[in-house]
Amino acid sequence: MKTMLMRLPIRSLLSSWRLGKRSSTDTGRRGLSGVTMRLVQFCRQGEEGAIRVGVQLDAGQGVVDLKHFDSALPSTMREFLQMGERGMEQAQRALSSGQCVVPLSEVRLLPPVTAPEKVVCVGMNYRDHCLEQNAPIPKEPIIFSKFPSAITGPYDDITLPEESEEVDWEVELAFVIGRKGRHIKEEEALSYVAGFTVANDVSARDWQMRRNGKQWLLGKTFDSFCPLGPALVTTAAIKDPHSLGICCRVNGITVQDSNTNQMIFRTEKLVAWVSQFVTLSPGDVFLTGTPPGVGVFRKPPVFLKKGDVVECKIDEIGLIRNAVV
C-alpha cells in the first residue's frame, strides 16, 4: 500500500512546534534535553510489523516519520532513546521542518516502547488504594515485574487467558528510562526519565493472590496484560507528573478516579531505589501503581469478561482503549 506523506504549512505547525520546543526549566531535573514532544511508535497501514518512531502532532494533523526524515535514525523507540540528546535534537529538527508527516488515517499506533530490557512494577503505591483494602502504608517500595512480552498497544485487545477467571484492571502512570544509570541520586533521577505514558496493569487475581505461592509475577504477565500508550510524553512536557488526574472506565462506567498526588513513592524515589539493585537502561518501563477502584476489592468482586471495553486515561498524556476478547 502506497503511503501518502504530507508537508504541513508553517502556520499549521505552530502549535506542534510549541510541543517540540525546549523547556526553560532545568534539564537536569526535567529529563533529556528539555524538549517537549509526544513520541510514538507506529506502523503504516499495510506495513504491519514495520516499526517506525515518530512525533505525534496536535489536533489530528498526523505523525512525523523520523526515519523518513533521516534514514540514519533507528526504527524502534528503545534504539532511539539510546541515542540520547542527539536523537532528541534530530526529532526536534524533523518536527520543525513540516516534512514527512503521515496522516493519522494511515497510522496504527503501537506501544511507545517494545521489547524493553525491564518492566518494573510498583505495588501498593497509592495511599487511597491502601485504604480501600485496609493495608498499611508501605515504608519502602514494593517491587515486582512483568515480562516484556506482556506489552501490547494502546488500542489492541486484552486476551482473557483460559487459565484465569479473575482478570482485573489497574490504570497506572508509567515512565520510561532515557539513559543508562546505576546508583542514581534522587535529586538527579528525573534527568534519567525520557517521559511518561499510560499503562493498564492487567492482573489475574487468582494467580496473583492464591496461586504460585502468592508470588505476583505469573498473575501479572500473561500475554496482552500490559497495554501501553498512546504516546511517550517527554518529561519536560508535563508540568507536574505527580498532580495528574488518573481514571479508568469499564464499558463507559468510571471505576477508578484519583490523582497521582496520592502516590507514596514518586518517580524520583523509584528511580533511585531500583537503581540500587540493577542498572537502568534506555527503554526500561516503570509502572508506578494504581489508585482504588479495582474489581477484586468491590463487593461483590467484579472481573473482566469478553466484550468489555477498558479505557485508561491520565491528564496531559492521553487515553488507551482496549477491548477484552
Describe this structure in words.
With 325 residues, this protein is of the alpha+beta class. The protein is built from 9 helices and 18 strands. The protein has helices spanning 10-19, 27-30, 66-69, 77-82, 85-97, 127-132, 205-209, 217-220, 267-274, and strands at 38-44, 52-56, 63-65, 101-102, 107-109, 119-123, 142-146, 151-152, 167-168, 171-177, 193-200, 203-204, 226-234, 245-250, 253-259, 285-287, 309-314, 318-323. The strands form 3 sheets. Strands 1, 2, 3, 4, 5, 6, 7, 8, 10, 11, 13 and 16 form a 12-stranded mixed beta sheet that branches. Strands 15-14-17-18 form a 4-stranded antiparallel beta sheet, with no helix packed on it. The chain has a two-stranded antiparallel ribbon with strand order 9-12. It is globular. Residues 10-15 and 23-28 have low confidence and may be disordered.
Summarize the model shown:
Helix content is 18%, strand content 27%. It has 325 residues and is of the alpha+beta class.
